[in-house]
Every structure is written in structure tokens, then in C-alpha cells.
Amino acid sequence: MKIALGADHAGFKAKAQLEDWLRTPQGGGHKILDLGTSSEEPTDYPDYAALVGRAVADQRVDKGILFCGSGTGMAIAANKIKGVRAAVVWSNKIASLAAEHNDVNVLCLPARFATLKQMQGMIKAFLKTPFGGGRHLRRVKKMMALEKC
Prior knowledge:
Elements: E1 2-7, H1 12-23, E2 31-34, H2 45-57, E3 63-68, H3 72-78, E4 86-88, H4 92-102, E5 106-110, H5 116-128, H6 135-145
Helix pairs in contact: 2-3, 4-5
């Protein structure tokens, strides 16, 4: 799978460590498109949410993962991009449900509130869980129709 990664200064360290892990067989052996940031210098999370969101929406990648302090700002910004369904997750189960029920294509992780091991679990759950379709498809279509409002 090809995955775009992005982070602000608060998520930089987690992104760097998890990028390496995602490339390994234990992390799934994924192809990674790193869209920044490249340091802990203060930066603005909407810039990276937009880069990752556009990569997902333009289908240059299969999924996106964003890292910031709480995950919330990234999710809000990414969801402004047409075609993006971003969610903040805080457990493996929530990550799995976001993929299965909401067809989330951008995972937003709270780097200041989760350990690397916890984030690895959430990423694995997100990437391995297929969209459930069925009744969930009807709801996702309704969410996506809101982009036209």
C-alpha cells in the first residue's frame, strides 16, 4: 500500500519513527510518501493536512496518516479537502471502526497522548480493516454529499 505521511512539529518525532517502521515487514512493508515536516521547528498543521489530504483525494496514495499533538487540528483541516474522510483515533478499536464504518482514508494520531506502540496498533488496525459497505455505504454517501452544500 502507498501511504502519505504528514506531521507538524508536535508529531515530527512520531512520524519519523513510524515511517521507518511502516517500511519494514513488521509494519507492513508499505511505500511511503513523506510530505513533511522535517524538523521540530514550529510549523502550521493545516499545511501538512492539506498536502496529505490532496495526495489521498487525487489518488496518488491509498491512505494518509497525520500526526500532531492531539490529532484534532489535522482532522479538521484534512476534512476540508473534498474526498477526504479523516478521523482522530485513540485506540485500536476506534481505528478499526473508523475504517469499517466510515471508510476513513486519513488517520489522525495524537502524538502527545499516545505511545509509539499504541500508534503502531492503531495504524495496523486502520490499514488492515476493510470498509464494511452495506448500511455503512449509505451513510458514507450521505456524508460525502455534504461536500456539495
